[in-house]
């Protein structure tokens, strides 16, 4: 799965499950603010990533993850390690 496919898949479930406007998803936009995430939403996000990509995320993975770009990079790196 290449980076574009990863981004497309992530954006798809973010739009569907978090009801965010696709136009609001920008590489440099703040992930938490754009999605309106609270602690329960982070759990939902982790479950979505695990079910869509088969990779596990833990709390420490989110340290320094503030933009969509950094989130995409995190998932891409997790997939590389898994492969």
Unreliable spans are none
What general form does the structure show?
globular
**DSSP, total strands:** 0
Largest beta-sheet characterization: none
- Average predicted local confidence, pLDDT: 93
Residue share in helix = 55-70%
Distance between the termini: 10 Å
Helical stretch count?
4
- Reading the helices and strands in chain order gives HHHH
- Category by helix and strand content: mainly alpha
Radius of gyration: 12 Å
Question: What's the topology here?
Answer:
Elements: H1 3-17, H2 31-35, H3 39-53, H4 68-82
Helix pairs in contact: 1-3, 1-4
Question: How would you characterize this protein structure?
Answer:
There is one protein chain. The protein is mostly helical and 83 residues long. 60% of the residues lie in helices and 0% in strands. It contains 4 helices and no strands. The chain has helices at residues 3-17, 31-35, 39-53, 68-82. Helix 1 packs across helix 3 and helix 1 (3-17) crosses helix 4 (68-82). The radius of gyration is 12 Å and the shape is globular. It starts with a helix and ends with a helix. The relative contact order is 0.18.
What attributes does this structure have?
about 80 residues, mainly alpha, 4 helices, about 0% strand
């Amino acid at each position: 799965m290449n980076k574009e496919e990863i981004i497309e898949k992530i954006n798809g479930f973010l739009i569907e499950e978090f009801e965010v406007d696709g136009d609001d998803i920008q590489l440099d936009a703040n992930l938490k603010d754009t999605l309106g995430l609270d602690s329960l939403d982070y759990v939902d996000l982790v479950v979505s990533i695990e079910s869509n990509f088969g990779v596990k995320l833990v709390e420490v993975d989110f340290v320094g993850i503030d933009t969509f770009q950094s989130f995409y990079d995190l998932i891409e790196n997790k997939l590389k390690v898994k492969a």
